[in-house]
UniProtKB/TrEMBL annotation:
Catalytic activity: ATP + H2O = ADP + phosphate + H(+); Couples ATP hydrolysis with the unwinding of duplex DNA by translocating in the 3'-5' direction
GO molecular function: 3'-5' DNA helicase activity; ATP binding; ATP hydrolysis activity; DNA binding; zinc ion binding
Gene source species: Mucilaginibacter pallidiroseus
Gene name in the database record: priA
Superkingdom in the source lineage: Bacteria
Alphabetical keyword list: ATP-binding, DNA replication, DNA-binding, Helicase, Hydrolase, Isomerase, Metal-binding, Nucleotide-binding, Primosome, Zinc
Protein name: Replication restart protein PriA
Length: 828
């Protein structure tokens, strides 16, 4: 990589840039830099380039060189978008590692890493701003041509505008129109982040004197009473808060915008436009007054001691042991040294819940980053991290992509959670593992926290690769909840079941509600009924695109596919035999909620699953309502298992534990234990001991007993023997290859060929091809090949290189036509 000083440019040099394009291409492309841009080009800046016949893309400069590509003639870059780099060299190194480790392309990593507003393509849509009036005479010819075209056709893509003007360099013109507020660029691809502006009002210092203010009121009350109201409202607001916005003043006074405008013209008020954050927090003072218990203080000291010789430490603390307070003290220590901290959480549900607690301690020093933010909000966080304005970032898995400059600590809370793994699209990365590499790059530390650690993490701690700190008592001496296992079979025999609820659960809920306490019910399936079946011929409606039965959702009255989104009306007559005897089998959260509303009509119910939390603030509203006791019973999927902390939740009901325990996966027992223990941990988190009711057809199942006894170690030792025998992680590494094709017969031949080619190198380490549990999704049939590699005796780097070569060789054959091959490293 070259560095250029100003003196270098006294001679005319031809520069080339290697760029990362947001495409799944196997190598980076090289472009030529126009001489007049030599001084402006830099690693990490975004440039606009043409790729293919006519498409434009935003690319990131990865390297600068004076060497032209040998195999093709380099095209010129069209434009440089940034004054300063938006991607750091450290990030580029991180992207490169991710693409190598997870066997994907750097363009796919770039697509996952950059907020959409920092990317641009030919398909970017441009529209007129209908709320803004402009003077056509002020436009130049090209601007006028674009606005006239947009008045005829409501949307144009950048490709359309390139054709319209007959030139490639249209972005500067669009940028000018955008900044003049004449056009809008669709948010997901707008090429320039636009700050939010707000008008703030201050009163003329001449009226700080009581006499002059009295004189002003005397005049305004006679001539302009509405303006007098506005001045009064300003004085009231200014006593309550430091700054007063124009909108707040209008709302408080009821005077209307014209009154405020008149007072500004009279210079009674001064108006100032300022950039404001979209992130919904103010600069409130941080509050950090809390005291650690003796056990927490000891754990904190042990963590700090472990960081002396270990880069990664596992904090194994039971539910409600106060791990978050230890995190806060560690963050304080790190921020005091001037370094940045990343606090990773597996779910947005946790992010919204915990952020309020952390803001009490860190005020505006903390930023939040997750997928529920709109694109402009994401760019704002990106820029603040880049400028080192945020010392602490709290976020979901995508937060590892932010442009940290001096990262001292990464906390991975609930490190066992599968939500840290991205399954689709590439990169199929695990944020926990990526965080460990990222911290190592910055010479920082990683704290992994969990009450039920993943077996891989616990194994690494037991072999002393990671430090291990145990926290085995609940904060404040609160006891673990009592757990009662109830046999559904027995209750069905005795006819004591009410719908899907055993008599034990109904009685415990009644006691809790009578005591003004709250209940959480867990059912790990959303929707109303998983299967609609004809009682006569056993016909079941299936998705037209996927090999799955459709789930009935009562709120929409339709059958839904949870894989591709397909919907159809629920039939009243069997399409196969014409029978009217159609029955709903099984039940999801929607049905649990519906039947509870009949059994307990006076109870305030709410549901928390993917269907009820789609909109931007819906999740926060549910959590707020639960905290404010506007909800008596919350029904939810696994969302309710993850870190929720509410004082008055004393009863947890697990409606059907068997749906977890009977899953065909080598991790089923580990995952079941984690889920049951985590859900149970939501109960009795303050001064009241909680109660957990587990409903099951198999009350003697080993995992249920281990949950009751809180015996994680017994579970770990038992399962690890099986892992070793059957060659599973952590003793072996796994790479999955999914081969997809729209024709099942062609796919069979492709998968067999690929598996046989891999066997030439790896022998019986290659398993399959086999159809996965669901062997057709979105009209693609799927075959899976699993590769198992010994952790200690084979180089995974060399193995991946061979797998890449075999896939590339396969893709050069005619047989591969129409196929998609998706590698997934560490798939589980």
């Amino acid at each position: 990589m070259l560095e250029f000083s100003e003196s270098t440019y006294t001679q005319r040099k031809t520069l080339f840039v290697e760029v990362i394009l947001p495409l799944a291409i196997s190598r980076n492309y090289t472009y030529r830099v126009p001489f007049e841009m030599n001084n402006a080009v830099a690693v990490g800046k975004r440039v606009v380039v043409q790729f293919g016949k006519s498409k434009l893309y935003t690319a990131v400069v990865a390297a600068i060189t004076e060497h032209a590509p040998k195999k093709y003639e380099a095209k010129y870059i069209i434009e440089i978008l940034d004054d300063n780099p938006v991607v750091t060299e450290g990030q580029l190194k991180f992207w490169s590692w991710l693409s190598e480790y997870y066997m994907c392309n750097e363009g796919e990593v770039m697509n996952a890493a950059l907020p959409s507003a920092l990317k641009l393509a030919s398909e970017t849509k441009v529209m007129l701003n209908k709320d803004f009036e402009y003077d056509k005479a002020s436009l130049n010819d090209k601007e006028y041509l674009i606005t006239e075209a947009l008045s005829i056709q409501p949307e144009l893509t950048i490709s359309d505008i390139v054709k319209l003007l007959g030139q490639k360099t249209v972005l500067p013109i669009l940028k000018t129109l955008f900044e003049k507020n004449i056009v809008n660029i669709s948010e997901e691809v707008s090429e320039r982040y636009k700050p939010r502006r707000r008008t703030y009002i201050t009163i003329n210092p001449a009226y700080h004197n009581q006499d002059s203010l009295r004189e002003l009121f005397a005049i305004l009350e006679k001539r302009a009473p509405k303006q007098a109201d506005a001045v009064l409202a300003y004085i009231k607001l200014s006593r309550q808060q430091k700054i007063v916005s124009k909108n707040e003043l209008i709302e408080e006074s009821g005077s209307g915008e014209s009154s405020i405008k008149s007072l500004i013209e009279k210079e009674v008020f001064f108006a100032e436009d300022r950039n404001v954050s979209r992130l919904g927090h103010d600069d409130s003072e941080a509050i950090n007054e809390f005291t650690l218990s003796a056990a927490q203080q000891l754990a904190l000291e042990e963590v700090n001691r472990s960081f002396g010789d270990k880069d990664v430490v596992l904090l194994h603390g039971i539910t409600s042991s106060g791990k978050t307070q230890i995190y806060i003290r560690l963050i304080e220590q790190m921020v005091a040294t001037g370094k940045q901290v990343l606090y990773l959480l597996p779910e947005i549900a946790l992010t919204t819940h915990i952020i309020e607690r952390l803001r009490m301690y860190f005020g505006s020093d903390i930023g939040v980053y997750h997928s529920r933010f709109n694109d402009n909000e994401r760019v704002e966080v990106w820029q603040k991290v880049l400028n080192n304005e945020y010392k602490v970032v709290l976020g979901a898995r995508s937060s590892v992509f932010l442009p940290f400059s001096d990262l001292g600590l990464i906390i991975v809370d609930e490190e066992h959670e599968t939500s840290y793994k991205q399954y689709d699209p590439a990169p199929r990365y695990n944020a926990r593992d990526a965080a460990i590499y990222l911290a190592n790059m910055h010479q920082g530390k990683v704290l992994l926290g969990s009450a039920t650690p993943s077996f891989e993490t616990y194994y690494n701690a037991r072999v002393h690769k990671y430090g291990l700190v145990n926290l085995s008592e609940r904060f404040g001496g609160v006891q673990l909840p009592t757990i009662e296992v109830v046999s559904i079979s027995e209750e069905l025999k005795r006819k004591t079941m009410q719908s899907h609820f055993t008599s034990v659960l109904m009685a415990d809920m009644a006691l809790a509600l009578e005591a003004k306490e709250q209940v959480i019910l867990f059912q790990n399936r959303r929707g109303y009924a998983p299967v609609l079946m004809c009682r006569v011929c056993a016909y079941t409606p299936k998705c037209i695109n996927c090999d799955v039965s459709l789930t009935y959702h009562k709120h929409s009255g339709k059958l839904h596919c949870h894989y591709c989104g397909y919907k159809e009306d629920s039939p009243s007559i069997c399409p196969a035999c014409g029978s009217t005897h159609l029955e709903y089998k099984g039940f999801g959260t929607e049905k649990v909620e519906d039947e509870l509303s009949v059994l307990l009509p006076d109870v305030k119910l709410a549901r928390m699953d993917l269907d009820t939390t789609r909109s931007r603030n819906s999740l926060q509203i549910i959590l707020n309502n639960l905290e404010e006791k506007k909800i008596d019973i919350l029904v939810g999927t696994q969302m309710v298992a993850k870190g929720l902390d509410f004082a008055d939740v004393t009863v947890i009901g697990i409606i059907n534990a068997d749906s977890l325990l009977k899953y065909p996966d080598y991790r089923a027992n580990e995952r079941s234990y984690q889920m049951l223990a985590q859900v149970s941990g939501r109960a009795g988190r303050r001064d009241k001991q909680g109660k957990v009711v587990i409903q099951t057809y198999d009350p003697n199942h080993r995992v249920i007993k281990q949950v009751i006894e809180n015996d994680y170690l017994d579970l770990y030792l038992t399962e690890m023997e099986e892992r070793k025998s059957f060659k599973y992680p952590p003793y072996y590494r796994i790479i999955n290859l999914d081969i997809k094709h729209k024709n099942a017969e062609v796919l069979y031949n492709q998968a067999e060929y690929l598996a046989n080619e891999l066997r030439k190198h790896f022998g019986d380490r290659v398993i399959g091809p086999e159809p996965p549990l669901i062997n057709r999704i979105r009209n693609y049939y799927i075959k899976s090949i699993m590769l198992k590699f010994e952790r200690d005796t084979i180089s995974i780097v060399k193995a991946k290189a061979i797998v890449r070569d075999v896939i590339t060789q396969f893709q050069t054959t005619k047989l591969s036509k129409g196929s998609i091959v998706q590698p997934d490293v560490d798939p589980y």
